[in-house]
Amino acid sequence: MILSNVLNYTAMKPISFKIEKKMNGLGRAGALTTPHGVINTPAFVTVGTKATVKALTPEQITDLGAQVVLANTYHLYLEPGDEIVRDAGGFGKFMNWNGPTMTDSGGFQVFSLGAAFGSKVGKLSKVTQGEIVGGDEIEEGDVAGRLAKIDEDGVTFKSYKDGSEHRFTPERSMEIQHNLGADMIFAFDECTSPAASYIYQKEAMERTHRWAKRSLEAHLANKEAAMKQGLLGVVQGGRHQDLREESARVLGAMDFDGYGIGGSFDKDDMGTAVGWVNAILPEDKPRHLLGIGEPIDLFGAVENGCDLFDCVAPTRTGRNGTLHTRDGKINMRNAKFVRDFTPIDGECDCYTCKNYTRAYIAHLFRSDEMLAGTLASIHNLRFLVSLVDRIRKSIIDDTYEALKISFLNQYYNK
Amino acid sequence: MILSNVLNYTAMKPISFKIEKKMNGLGRAGALTTPHGVINTPAFVTVGTKATVKALTPEQITDLGAQVVLANTYHLYLEPGDEIVRDAGGFGKFMNWNGPTMTDSGGFQVFSLGAAFGSKVGKLSKVTQGEIVGGDEIEEGDVAGRLAKIDEDGVTFKSYKDGSEHRFTPERSMEIQHNLGADMIFAFDECTSPAASYIYQKEAMERTHRWAKRSLEAHLANKEAAMKQGLLGVVQGGRHQDLREESARVLGAMDFDGYGIGGSFDKDDMGTAVGWVNAILPEDKPRHLLGIGEPIDLFGAVENGCDLFDCVAPTRTGRNGTLHTRDGKINMRNAKFVRDFTPIDGECDCYTCKNYTRAYIAHLFRSDEMLAGTLASIHNLRFLVSLVDRIRKSIIDDTYEALKISFLNQYYNK
């Protein structure tokens, strides 16, 4: 009877993870099975903030090799509202994306974008354009503390759109994410400022752990949702090794379907900090490093045991004209591309590189044509998706170190 | 020898037109053969102002059933410059569109957009966004006369982008259009204001006839271009029957490969005015009515002998949220669509209607998402392309009158 129950419970798990190959150290290649298909890991997750990967159709997302789309709970809650998305059949169906889906907890945006409303923090002005601001671009200082009011039960914050007041609790985040209906959802967490003190980081982390427990309970209490959606806990702890390790231990002991790693890191040694966490987290569950998309960070994260990454940078910087090539980034608004009839990257297999010249793309950018954003996003996403796919293959083929050295030397022109 | 030369000359003609079925009166269904494929007429021509149909890939243009793309000479001359487009292999190759192509003469924009620079004419402010302004939206009054300086040889005008001075002559328009490389190009014409006097209209029309002759001579003098590109003369004459008829007679006697019908008409009876012209133009050559896209005008133009139409309205109004349905136009920003989980038009076979709900499209518009413009443009273009295709079939099947009555009654809710 007891065994049978365990088997049933296991069989009911909406997501499962299988390690296919381990590297020396923490890195691994695996397969993450979701109700909407298998994600081969490591995998780069495409961000579709408001149930749309900006400027792309779902067919274009599929064609560029993306396996999974992550939408932002905070944004969809505010617009069009999670109940409309629920009535549409979940955000995947709403946007006509049939593959695996994720939503984040809303925590990051509550603290970063809530802080932005009415403030004059430089980079946060971008949020008025209606898009998530990546973790590595935020410099909220302690403004968040003033505009997002945190108490033990949850957080009260202001909409980045109109300043209206809203409240998220772990239970509310679960309810909203159940309505949004993604295959993988995240426990509600507090995302602290990198400038916060050690004492505050510890206090916030401990609150995040209590919120994680409440998120898990609220998730499992909704049996229908728990059968269809996997819940990932979010490790916090800032830049402090002892806090990161404690967070991994506490959350690792809870029965999450996987783990997110959130918050800020020392950019010069992200891999090491991620390693502190992944050495402790259960090995048999997938790990998602939130908000990372710079090539060198992807290598550092993979070899330290991360399986999934998401970042708005490839689409956002792409729309501004910054494109990845194997020799580093180039900006298409540079005059030298106006008569350059070669592709963005001669070795790239994306739709953009197969069909268009730098001269044409430069023309589209100079003319502020919408197609510029589409072609640039396809290329940049394909570049990162393809890079992570190559990293995956190199793990399986035991050629990871060679790939890492050759790619990084060429990309960063060392 | 003489016969052989005539045959060679005919065989060398880059475009040919065959009437497949005639209606009572002037209307007809036909097939227009170009170096890049056959256009079944009547056909709605998709506008790709700057060598891009705004927000769409060429695959999306093909998928929605568009047969031909028209780019604007004035815009491509200013940006990126016709020599870059020539070096790219022509505007079709530049934008990765392999089907038939057209460029206009540049005349309409020289007079309408040249007039816009530095002026405060209401609707013309739109041009700073870098797109052609449709003929029926222009209210240039006599501003054009001040900013576009016309002489017998040509016209000096200011760039709508930076106010820099430029000059077009018939010979220069041909040179630029040869560089742009479209299958069908237009003779350089003067596009007068609807407010201009009869005397000025007549004077301008006679100048347009002299420019037409010079355009034809300049075109034929470039033997390589003349083998690949067909030249269409542009009938002018404003709203005056005698001028329109005279223009049709004079140009009809010149050896053009087809004809454009330009300038302004009385919107309430466009069909009649078009009929004056088409009753005189050679029957065996295609006729393109420039800048028309309202359903009732398409019917009026077809039954009065037009074969081709182009208009920016479906993409421009689409990007603003105005979408065609069989019951007339709707605006997706209207609150009533926020929870409407039906397609834009339940009978429409376009990609947008097959895959997305009004609620999703309303969400994209409210969120200012780029995909809104893409999905709206696909739908509106498909709506008009499909309507003209149905008109064509109805001509062949002798069911034109029934289609006209049922469509117009439903669309205009009569």
TrEMBL record, chains A, B:
<comment type="pathway">
    <text>tRNA modification; tRNA-queuosine biosynthesis.</text>
</comment>
<dbReference type="InterPro" id="IPR002616">
    <property type="entry name" value="tRNA_ribo_trans-like"/>
</dbReference>
<comment type="subunit">
    <text>Homodimer. Within each dimer, one monomer is responsible for RNA recognition and catalysis, while the other monomer binds to the replacement base PreQ1.</text>
</comment>
<feature type="domain" description="tRNA-guanine(15) transglycosylase-like">
    <location>
        <begin position="27"/>
        <end position="132"/>
    </location>
</feature>
<dbReference type="GO" id="GO:0008479">
    <property type="term" value="F:tRNA-guanosine(34) queuine transglycosylase activity"/>
</dbReference>
<feature type="binding site">
    <location>
        <begin position="104"/>
        <end position="108"/>
    </location>
    <ligand>
        <name>substrate</name>
    </ligand>
</feature>
<keyword id="KW-0479">Metal-binding</keyword>
<keyword id="KW-0819">tRNA processing</keyword>
<keyword id="KW-0328">Glycosyltransferase</keyword>
<feature type="binding site">
    <location>
        <position position="350"/>
    </location>
    <ligand>
        <name>Zn(2+)</name>
    </ligand>
</feature>
<feature type="binding site">
    <location>
        <position position="189"/>
    </location>
    <ligand>
        <name>substrate</name>
    </ligand>
</feature>
<dbReference type="GO" id="GO:0046872">
    <property type="term" value="F:metal ion binding"/>
</dbReference>
<keyword id="KW-0862">Zinc</keyword>
<dbReference type="GO" id="GO:0005829">
    <property type="term" value="C:cytosol"/>
</dbReference>
<feature type="binding site">
    <location>
        <position position="236"/>
    </location>
    <ligand>
        <name>substrate</name>
    </ligand>
</feature>
<feature type="domain" description="tRNA-guanine(15) transglycosylase-like">
    <location>
        <begin position="146"/>
        <end position="412"/>
    </location>
</feature>
<keyword id="KW-0671">Queuosine biosynthesis</keyword>
<dbReference type="InterPro" id="IPR004803">
    <property type="entry name" value="TGT"/>
</dbReference>
<comment type="function">
    <text>Catalyzes the base-exchange of a guanine (G) residue with the queuine precursor 7-aminomethyl-7-deazaguanine (PreQ1) at position 34 (anticodon wobble position) in tRNAs with GU(N) anticodons (tRNA-Asp, -Asn, -His and -Tyr). Catalysis occurs through a double-displacement mechanism. The nucleophile active site attacks the C1' of nucleotide 34 to detach the guanine base from the RNA, forming a covalent enzyme-RNA intermediate. The proton acceptor active site deprotonates the incoming PreQ1, allowing a nucleophilic attack on the C1' of the ribose to form the product.</text>
</comment>
<feature type="binding site">
    <location>
        <position position="348"/>
    </location>
    <ligand>
        <name>Zn(2+)</name>
    </ligand>
</feature>
<feature type="active site" description="Nucleophile">
    <location>
        <position position="310"/>
    </location>
</feature>
<feature type="region of interest" description="RNA binding">
    <location>
        <begin position="291"/>
        <end position="297"/>
    </location>
</feature>
<keyword id="KW-0808">Transferase</keyword>
<protein>
    <recommendedName>
        <fullName>Queuine tRNA-ribosyltransferase</fullName>
        <ecNumber>2.4.2.29</ecNumber>
    </recommendedName>
</protein>
<feature type="binding site">
    <location>
        <position position="379"/>
    </location>
    <ligand>
        <name>Zn(2+)</name>
    </ligand>
</feature>
<feature type="region of interest" description="RNA binding; important for wobble base 34 recognition">
    <location>
        <begin position="315"/>
        <end position="319"/>
    </location>
</feature>
<feature type="binding site">
    <location>
        <position position="353"/>
    </location>
    <ligand>
        <name>Zn(2+)</name>
    </ligand>
</feature>
<comment type="similarity">
    <text>Belongs to the queuine tRNA-ribosyltransferase family.</text>
</comment>
<feature type="active site" description="Proton acceptor">
    <location>
        <position position="104"/>
    </location>
</feature>
<feature type="binding site">
    <location>
        <position position="263"/>
    </location>
    <ligand>
        <name>substrate</name>
    </ligand>
</feature>
<dbReference type="Pfam" id="PF01702">
    <property type="entry name" value="TGT"/>
</dbReference>
<dbReference type="GO" id="GO:0008616">
    <property type="term" value="P:tRNA queuosine(34) biosynthetic process"/>
</dbReference>
<dbReference type="InterPro" id="IPR050076">
    <property type="entry name" value="ArchSynthase1/Queuine_TRR"/>
</dbReference>
<dbReference type="InterPro" id="IPR036511">
    <property type="entry name" value="TGT-like_sf"/>
</dbReference>
